[in-house]
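Q: A reviewer asked whether we had any structural model of the full assembly, not just the individual parts. We don't, so I'm hoping you can provide one. Inputs are below.
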Amino acid sequence: MSLHDIIFWILSLWAIVCAIFVVISRNPVNSVLFLIATFFAISGHYILMNAQFLAIVNIIVYAGAIMVLFLFVIMLMNLNTDTEPQKSRLVHFAALISAGSLLLVVLSAFRKAELTQIPVTDAGDIGLIKVLGKTLFDHYVLPFELSSVLFLAAMVGAMVIGRKEVVEEKSTK
Amino acid sequence: MKPLIATAVFAILMMFAALTVKEKKSFTHFAAILMLGLVGLNVWELADYNRLLASAQASPDLFGKMLRVDNYALWFNVLMSSCSFFYILLVGRSIEKVGVHVGEYYALHFFILCGVFLLSTYNNLLILFLGIEILSIPQYILSGSDKRNLKSSEASLKYFLMGAFSTGILLMGIVLLYGAMGTFDIHGFNFYATGTLNIMGVVGVLFMLVALGFKVSAAPMHFWTPDVYDGSPTPFTAFMATIVKVSVFFAFMRLFMEGFANLDPYWKVTVLGTITVLTLLIGNITAVYQQSVKRMLAYSSIAQAGFMMFVVIGSNAMAMKGMIIYAVAYTLATVGIFGVLLKLKDYTYDGFNGLAKKHPFLALIASICLMSLAGIPLTAGFFAKWFVIAAALEQPGTFWLVIFALVMAAVSLYYYFKVIMAMYFKTGEPELITPVTTMDKVVMAIIGSAVIVFGIAPDMLLAWI
Amino acid sequence: MTQLVYLVPLFPLIGFLLNGLFWKSMPKKLAGIIGSTAILASFAVSLGIFFEVKNGAAAGQGIVHLFDFITVGNFKIPFAFMVDQLSAMFLLIITGIGFLIHLYSTSYMHDDEGFTKYFAYLNLFVFFMLLLVLGANYVVMFIGWEGVGLASYLLIGFWYKNKEYTNASKKAFVMNRIGDLGFLIGMMLTVYHFGTLSYNDFFAQLQGGIGAQTQNGYMIGSGMTNAIAICFFIGAMGKSAQIPLYTWLPDAMAGPTPVSALIHAATMVTAGIYMIARSNALFNLAPMAQNMIAIIGLATVLLAASIALKQNDIKKVLAYSTVSQLGYMFLALGVGAYVGSLFHVMTHAFFKALLFLGSGSVIHAMSGEQDMRKMGGLGKYMPITKFTFLIGCLAISGFPFFSGFFSKDEILAAAYAKNPMFYYLGLLGAMMTTFYMFRAYFYTFTGNFRGTEEQKHHVHESPATMTIPLIILAILSLVGGLVGLPEVFSHHHLLNEYLSPVVQNFDIHHLDHTMELTLMGIASAIVLIMMYVARVITRKEQFGEAKGLAKVLENKWYVDEIYDFLIVRPLAWKARILNNIVEQKGIDGGVNGLGQLVQWGSTRLKNLQSGQVGSYLFAMVIGIIIIFAIGIFGLLYM
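A: Here is a predicted structure for the entire assembly that you could use as a starting point for your response.
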């Protein structure tokens, strides 16, 4: 087992355990913190795969910006354990059973699966900004541009949902 | 390519219009003109492609095989944009009444059409994913756009939460497929590359099946549909139930036909057949007991999805034809019946009582549309069902599935004819909320006659296949 | 002329469109003229076609291709008409009798506010019926098939303000749909095995007989032909009112009387016979289906005839007699006497239309009264109706040398050749037929008037537009049998010769002449005896509370109640279960995420909005697990 493998296992374990805690911890603030920890583990994976840029962006955007927003929301809305609806034991039980059986079914499939090794082309510098930019604006330019359409649509939507319907009220009065 | 860019540009134009235009009515006119332009662009694109095809310069692959724009997809786009055009003409006035952001509502429609065009032309799972998201996010918003109505907000939230769940599943499927195949290109999938079946790929297929099944409201992923369709403002329900749904089916069929072609056909029939049976059963049986026509139509859209599953099961040349005919027949009929529904004040069956006496034209159009949905011969719906069933029959082991579907089609007659009965054989004083204008009559007449014309000569729709 | 065949259904369609679109503004007179003229024009064209077909044109030659309907690869369904002896014969019956009934309706329906609508529906019905018999493939036939169902639904519920009538129309529609499903499945099976739905193609493939290869590469086996034939027969069962799907027909009497005459006596109900006769090539290869048809036909004859014995509503008597006569036709089909069956279709169309129109004339005179117990002695006031009705009774009973005599005789002879038991039971049916028809006749036209004074005052002979059709039909009932004289009398069975290119008849010649004459003699004697019995009994019978068997008969063997108990209620019950438990508790509530279960555990969750979404998701996950299990385990063990 090489060093690379050892780091991989540690990171994976870290990510999985933290992800589980995101779900099971009662305090939402703790959940968010665990989520940030998960993101760090995933960033570690990126670095392991030689994608430094992605790793950094992942931390800056997700762990930095989005998670802070999450925390703001949670704190502003005062979502602590007291207001969190108490789910009955039965719900937990049912959720556990169903998730468990899903896992079982999928695992039973993977047990038979042979993992095919996909040859990684030009793995060395794929994560570098220069190469990434070139690929993004060359081969993946359409998905890239479409993402902007997607965000535009989401922004319009946020506006529709968020804006008060002042005009309407005036006209009805 | 032109129409795809145009959808985004037109959406932005609509938003700019929202800044300057004050009169609500102008939005509808503007949107209708833009939509007509979109139809024109699609036709232009189709003509252009065929001109190039004649000189052997055309290649369907665009953007490094990200898109595959061929005659079939372009023809579908032409039909869908035309249907959207009629949709706007018919329900425009109701859209104006939903809320204040009329311009934005239309903008969101154009965004949805951007997603529709992506779904009809995608050649890459990335584009499929983006297409589905571009299609879905505006829908979440539209379903919650009637902010004075709690049910609408509830519908929006439910749709969003469950949609997010299905997006996760879709991504999981795409990731597994990528892991198994090493490519996003749907034409590059080979499940027997190593000689034995690639199980990881198959699990990916199942995940994608579930996610796409969610979007087309196939059982058991249909739970959101009644609540969302019922809660959303009615004009938007009409759009979601028709153009959006058939577009996802189009993508669904292409995925199975082109991407997953070399999977075992028996396996495909078993898995898809299970979903189909459940969908048909739940959709039809539950629709029978609805009190509200709008909610009945929500369940009926589930039932119709069960029939459209046959194109996915078929995944052959016949299914391609069936897809087009079903898409048009179902969309026209549903838009038509929603057009009538929107005129009425009361959405329950009782609200239709005596409609034939007071507004014989509305009743006639509604009857034609309902009969088409039920699949009565001489309406487009008959051939739609005919084609998809014929497509499915070409696959092995589908015989009993088809029999079951026919039984369910017989059940569907009950709830469709209940509306017709109410209109023609019961007495009542149906109240209209908006008057029936000449424009409405013209559009309804076009829809009604189209349903009958396509019921006599469905080959007209297959011109470009 | 054959090329002009599209005109035949076109005229009624135009009539329908004119009357249907302008029903608000159309004056009554004009509506009647348009409706009747359309059918008359069709009749004229049909007549031309008939003579052309009669003097030549072998089977399968007369395909008139109108346009391509559906094209799927090499599988084509053209919208084509088939003009041959069989369809020409039906064209004449439909348009001929149809015209008379239209004419009759102009006075019968004169006071109805929906006059124009009525004619529109009637024309629509004729249009679909013509489509049904003209189609050159099963798809066109099916369009007509569904169309007549629709038109009959509209006409039965024509007086839609009466709840009972609309229920009757619904019942007819549903019963028909059950049959249609069988037909549809039969069609599917045909496409699946034979790759075609057009008659010529299909029958040509069947020519090979058992063991031959079909176009799709299947071997024709008796299992396959029987399955298809039985499916087709189920379709015919619904349309032609056979056990167990016959109950709609008596209820269909809710419609105006001319409608009963046209749809429920002369035309629509014979669609099933037409379909089976048309597919004779198939049925000849399906002995099991044939036996089934014969037995069900015979059972229908007996059941319906026994019910008719005790009915007091004049139209109900005629309705059950129709069911019973249809049973004879099926019996004939079952024993392979296709020509006999078609012969009976023709003569039955004459005398049953006559009887219905006669009863309509009576009902008209009695201001809508249908109960025979309130009639009596009407013969004095309406001689033409009485006389024509008597001819109808004689014809349907099979009184010697009336039309019904020859057709029924042919069927019974064929039944005897197949199995003497069929003959005896058929004879029993004929006995009952004579009895109930003459019972109706005596009650209505002889004796003392039993109605109110007001009615008595009002009784009058009907106007000429009503009596002329009666007289024409009476003449037809009288002489209609001459086209099919049995061999003892003449060597030229005209109908048989005429139909021989299309219908491969079962050979009935091996009955020797003495035998055949004996059979005829028995039948005739029975008719006479039963007439006498009817006379005696009608004189004596008191209209008291019926008891014992009579009560069972009066209540139609309680078949409706039995259906209600066996089928309708369990279905409704199941539906309620589905709705209340599976849907509300199961899907909406229970699967609605273990909703019920969760409620049991925690009441708080009920207050939560997200509880629902959570439960939806939970149900979804369960569904996903099932799909995955099927998908993955199906794959591993496939």
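A: Points you may want to mention in the reply: DSSP finds 26 helices and two strands in chain C. Chain C touches chain B through 54 residues (CB under 8 Å).
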